[in-house]
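Thread: quick sanity check before group meeting

JM: Hey all, I'm pulling together slides for Thursday and realized we never actually wrote out the predicted structure for the chain we discussed last week. Dropping the sequence here so it's in one place. If anyone has concerns about the input, flag it before I start.
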Amino acid sequence: MEITIKGTMAEVEGVQPKVGEKAPDFSLVNLKKQIINLSDLTDKPVLISVVPDIDTRVCALQTKRFNQEAGNIKEVHFLTISNNTAEEQANWCAAEGVDMELLHDTELNFAKAYGLYIPSAKHLARSIFVVDKNGVIVYEEIVPEMAQEPDYGKALDVVTNL
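JM (edit): ok, ran it. Output follows.
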């Protein structure tokens, strides 16, 4: 798959999961050093927000938007994943006053399972996945231009109607 980064073509490695498929399971560590497994989050739907680099403007906007929504919608697990280090994520959260669930994928396990790694950028592709209680992907968006924000409205409509 190809996307653009400020107009330049970039290859996204791997195969991306599609709507209707079982979401690939993953285990990542949060900022409290707890292991979060997707397979354990079956009590309510999950919105996975993937950002390339937490320290950039669009990633900050995306994370803040879903942090705000997480405060209002308790019936959904909101996760933000990037391949930033835990320290980078913690510093950003402290500076921005964000307290949502951030998971770091420095080993690229999630990136490979979801086919989202961009070798030329050394980051994950900006994307959103909504997973229902049965572990099935019911919405996916891989943003075609990395510098653009995702369609928050569509993802939130899907997840709040589950």
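AS: nice. The first helix runs from residue 57 to 72. The chain has one domain: 2-160.
JM: adding both to the slides.
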